[in-house]
Amino acid sequence: MPRHWLLCKRRQVIKFEPARTRSGKDVRLAAARHGWDHVLRCVAIAARLADGDVLHGIVLIAIIQGNAAPPRHSAGDPNPNAAGLPGDSPGTPVSAYAVAKRLGLPYETVRRHVARLVDEGRCVRVGARGGVIVPLAAIQQMRPDILLNQSLESLASLVSGLNSIGALQVQTFHDYDKSMMIG
Fold this sequence. Notes:
Elements: E1 5-7, E2 12-16, H1 28-49, H2 54-67, H3 96-103, H4 107-120, E3 124-126, E4 131-133, H5 136-141, H6 144-164, E5 168-172
Antiparallel strand pairs: 1-2, 2-5, 3-4
Protein backbone atom coordinates (compact mmCIF):
# COMPACT_ATOMS: atom_id res chain seq x y z
CA MET A 1 0.00 0.00 0.00
CA PRO A 2 1.45 3.41 -0.84
CA ARG A 3 2.47 5.42 2.21
CA HIS A 4 0.05 8.24 1.43
CA TRP A 5 -3.03 6.04 1.95
CA LEU A 6 -4.74 5.68 5.34
CA LEU A 7 -7.44 3.18 6.23
CA CYS A 8 -10.16 4.57 8.49
CA LYS A 9 -12.51 2.83 10.92
CA ARG A 10 -15.58 3.73 8.87
CA ARG A 11 -14.47 1.51 6.00
CA GLN A 12 -13.15 4.51 4.12
CA VAL A 13 -9.79 5.16 2.59
CA ILE A 14 -8.25 8.60 2.75
CA LYS A 15 -5.67 9.44 0.13
CA PHE A 16 -3.27 12.23 1.01
CA GLU A 17 -1.92 14.01 -2.04
CA PRO A 18 0.91 16.07 -0.57
CA ALA A 19 2.06 17.95 -3.66
CA ARG A 20 -0.92 18.81 -5.81
CA THR A 21 -4.68 18.46 -5.85
CA ARG A 22 -6.65 17.16 -8.82
CA SER A 23 -6.94 20.73 -10.06
CA GLY A 24 -3.15 20.98 -10.09
CA LYS A 25 -2.97 23.49 -7.25
CA ASP A 26 0.21 23.19 -5.15
CA VAL A 27 -0.90 22.56 -1.56
CA ARG A 28 2.41 21.73 0.11
CA LEU A 29 2.73 25.00 2.01
CA ALA A 30 -0.89 24.95 3.20
CA ALA A 31 -0.60 21.25 4.14
CA ALA A 32 2.55 22.00 6.14
CA ARG A 33 0.76 24.86 7.91
CA HIS A 34 -2.11 22.56 8.90
CA GLY A 35 0.40 19.92 10.04
CA TRP A 36 2.32 22.38 12.21
CA ASP A 37 -0.94 23.71 13.67
CA HIS A 38 -1.68 20.14 14.76
CA VAL A 39 1.80 19.77 16.28
CA LEU A 40 1.39 23.03 18.22
CA ARG A 41 -2.00 21.95 19.56
CA CYS A 42 -0.42 18.69 20.75
CA VAL A 43 2.43 20.63 22.38
CA ALA A 44 -0.18 22.75 24.20
CA ILE A 45 -1.79 19.55 25.50
CA ALA A 46 1.61 18.37 26.77
CA ALA A 47 2.13 21.73 28.47
CA ARG A 48 -1.24 21.48 30.22
CA LEU A 49 -0.18 18.09 31.61
CA ALA A 50 2.76 19.72 33.39
CA ASP A 51 1.48 23.12 34.48
CA GLY A 52 2.89 24.91 31.45
CA ASP A 53 6.26 23.13 31.20
CA VAL A 54 6.20 21.68 27.69
CA LEU A 55 9.31 19.53 28.00
CA HIS A 56 8.18 18.12 31.35
CA GLY A 57 4.86 17.16 29.77
CA ILE A 58 6.55 15.57 26.77
CA VAL A 59 8.81 13.49 29.04
CA LEU A 60 5.73 12.40 31.00
CA ILE A 61 3.96 11.36 27.78
CA ALA A 62 7.06 9.44 26.63
CA ILE A 63 7.12 7.55 29.94
CA ILE A 64 3.43 6.67 29.62
CA GLN A 65 4.06 5.46 26.05
CA GLY A 66 7.07 3.44 27.22
CA ASN A 67 4.98 1.88 29.98
CA ALA A 68 2.49 0.73 27.33
CA ALA A 69 5.19 -1.17 25.41
CA PRO A 70 5.28 -4.96 25.71
CA PRO A 71 7.76 -6.13 28.37
CA ARG A 72 11.27 -7.13 27.34
CA HIS A 73 12.59 -10.10 29.28
CA SER A 74 14.70 -13.20 29.05
CA ALA A 75 13.24 -16.53 27.98
CA GLY A 76 13.50 -17.99 31.51
CA ASP A 77 11.53 -15.18 33.15
CA PRO A 78 7.82 -15.43 32.27
CA ASN A 79 6.80 -12.08 33.82
CA PRO A 80 9.68 -9.89 34.97
CA ASN A 81 7.38 -6.95 35.73
CA ALA A 82 5.30 -8.75 38.34
CA ALA A 83 7.86 -8.30 41.12
CA GLY A 84 8.14 -4.86 42.64
CA LEU A 85 5.44 -3.04 40.68
CA PRO A 86 2.57 -1.25 42.34
CA GLY A 87 -0.77 -3.06 42.08
CA ASP A 88 -2.13 -0.45 39.67
CA SER A 89 0.90 -0.54 37.38
CA PRO A 90 0.07 0.10 33.73
CA GLY A 91 2.94 -1.96 32.37
CA THR A 92 6.61 -1.95 31.53
CA PRO A 93 9.04 0.28 33.45
CA VAL A 94 11.07 2.62 31.25
CA SER A 95 14.49 4.13 31.94
CA ALA A 96 15.43 7.78 31.65
CA TYR A 97 18.01 6.68 29.07
CA ALA A 98 15.32 5.04 26.91
CA VAL A 99 13.17 8.17 27.11
CA ALA A 100 16.14 10.38 26.21
CA LYS A 101 16.99 8.17 23.26
CA ARG A 102 13.40 8.13 22.00
CA LEU A 103 13.01 11.91 22.26
CA GLY A 104 16.51 12.72 21.00
CA LEU A 105 17.24 14.74 24.14
CA PRO A 106 20.32 14.78 26.36
CA TYR A 107 20.21 12.07 29.01
CA GLU A 108 20.89 14.52 31.85
CA THR A 109 17.95 16.72 30.85
CA VAL A 110 15.58 13.76 30.83
CA ARG A 111 17.04 12.38 34.06
CA ARG A 112 16.25 15.68 35.83
CA HIS A 113 12.68 15.67 34.49
CA VAL A 114 12.19 12.04 35.55
CA ALA A 115 13.53 12.84 39.05
CA ARG A 116 11.10 15.77 39.26
CA LEU A 117 8.20 13.56 38.11
CA VAL A 118 9.10 11.04 40.84
CA ASP A 119 9.28 13.86 43.43
CA GLU A 120 5.86 15.11 42.28
CA GLY A 121 4.41 11.61 42.69
CA ARG A 122 3.55 11.31 39.00
CA CYS A 123 6.08 8.48 38.50
CA VAL A 124 7.33 5.64 40.66
CA ARG A 125 10.75 4.01 40.45
CA VAL A 126 10.57 0.22 40.27
CA GLY A 127 12.95 -2.69 39.99
CA ALA A 128 16.67 -2.98 40.49
CA ARG A 129 17.41 -0.93 37.38
CA GLY A 130 15.36 2.03 38.58
CA GLY A 131 12.97 2.22 35.66
CA VAL A 132 9.87 4.35 36.15
CA ILE A 133 6.18 3.86 35.64
CA VAL A 134 3.26 6.24 35.77
CA PRO A 135 0.74 4.57 38.09
CA LEU A 136 -2.86 4.41 36.91
CA ALA A 137 -3.89 6.69 39.79
CA ALA A 138 -1.58 9.41 38.44
CA ILE A 139 -2.94 8.89 34.92
CA GLN A 140 -6.50 9.21 36.19
CA GLN A 141 -5.62 12.54 37.85
CA MET A 142 -4.59 13.81 34.41
CA ARG A 143 -8.17 13.32 33.16
CA PRO A 144 -7.36 11.07 30.19
CA ASP A 145 -10.91 11.47 28.85
CA ILE A 146 -10.38 15.21 28.42
CA LEU A 147 -6.89 14.70 26.96
CA LEU A 148 -8.22 12.16 24.49
CA ASN A 149 -10.99 14.53 23.41
CA GLN A 150 -8.48 17.35 22.95
CA SER A 151 -6.20 15.06 20.92
CA LEU A 152 -9.08 13.88 18.73
CA GLU A 153 -10.27 17.47 18.19
CA SER A 154 -6.76 18.39 17.08
CA LEU A 155 -6.60 15.44 14.70
CA ALA A 156 -10.07 16.24 13.34
CA SER A 157 -8.95 19.82 12.77
CA LEU A 158 -5.90 18.56 10.86
CA VAL A 159 -8.01 16.29 8.64
CA SER A 160 -10.59 19.04 8.11
CA GLY A 161 -7.88 21.54 7.19
CA LEU A 162 -6.22 19.16 4.74
CA ASN A 163 -9.63 18.36 3.26
CA SER A 164 -10.47 22.07 2.91
CA ILE A 165 -7.41 22.67 0.70
CA GLY A 166 -8.15 19.60 -1.40
CA ALA A 167 -5.22 17.54 -0.12
CA LEU A 168 -7.42 14.63 0.97
CA GLN A 169 -9.59 12.38 -1.08
CA VAL A 170 -12.04 10.14 0.81
CA GLN A 171 -13.42 7.04 -0.88
CA THR A 172 -15.31 4.05 0.45
CA PHE A 173 -13.31 0.92 1.21
CA HIS A 174 -15.11 -1.35 -1.24
CA ASP A 175 -13.75 0.75 -4.14
CA TYR A 176 -10.34 -0.83 -3.60
CA ASP A 177 -8.93 -4.32 -3.71
CA LYS A 178 -8.89 -5.60 -0.11
CA SER A 179 -5.49 -7.21 -0.63
CA MET A 180 -4.07 -3.74 -1.18
CA MET A 181 -5.14 -2.71 2.33
CA ILE A 182 -3.03 -5.34 4.09
CA GLY A 183 0.22 -3.76 4.95
